[in-house]
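Researcher: Next entry in the queue.
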Amino acid sequence: MSREAEQAEMDKSSAPLLDHLIELRTRLIWSIVAFFIAFLFSFFFAKRIFNLLVIPYEWAMILSGQPSDKVQLIYTAPQEFFFTQIKIAMFAGLMLSFPVIATQVYRFVAPGLYRNERMAFLPFLVASPILFLMGAMLVYFGFTPVVMSFFLGMQQLGPNQDVHIQLLPRVSEYLGLIMTLMLSFGLVFQLPVVTTLLVRVGILSAQALAGKRKYAIVFAFIIAAVLTPPDPVSQISLALPTILLYEVSIWAARMIERRRALTEVEAGA
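Model: Structure for this entry, 269 residues:
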């Protein structure tokens, strides 16, 4: 289909502002309903989800040489654990309802895109949650046990210590830590998606990304120092994936530019 024909099709399907607002309201309602259902489902299993989130803490106790069968967390306010379960349900509900929300966003913006733009938008819609999940899994299986073992190593335990100092995390603070780490890693793993979209619209190029590589490496370690505890292992654990994702972004940008050049040559022929 030629670009003129696609433009005619878009003009034919264009709707007045009121129709767009009605469409937006419909998409918002479906998104809110999906999130509310996922929230209720997640709240019903909130305690089990929290127990799953405590497993990296158990691994950290094993790494620090402490018995993992004595995991103990506390809450110091009567309502603290209840609000912690609400936060868990909101976090899990958003993740569960994301496919529906993303679908509603796509169905709202798709009529205003050309066919090739719609085909280009879909891979990013699929890649974004996958990359976010990869970042969250890295936090769960690798980063959190290392970080918590670092904090557990600061305890003063045993009969030879003058002062007995033991780590007893509050449920809200532990949840806040692991959620912050998951969100940080998940957003960092969106780097290839963001840079590739900017290359597609012509704001960035592979040459520009490659030329700023040394600044990107420094920036990656700065971000790691801000988001992680002050130990080298934690900072390197975030900085190295960030640098690797930046290299993936450069490779993806070059592939996009090669495909674009080939398309232009074919169109000229």
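Model: Residues 190 and 231 are 25 Å apart (CA to CA).
Researcher: Noted, moving on.
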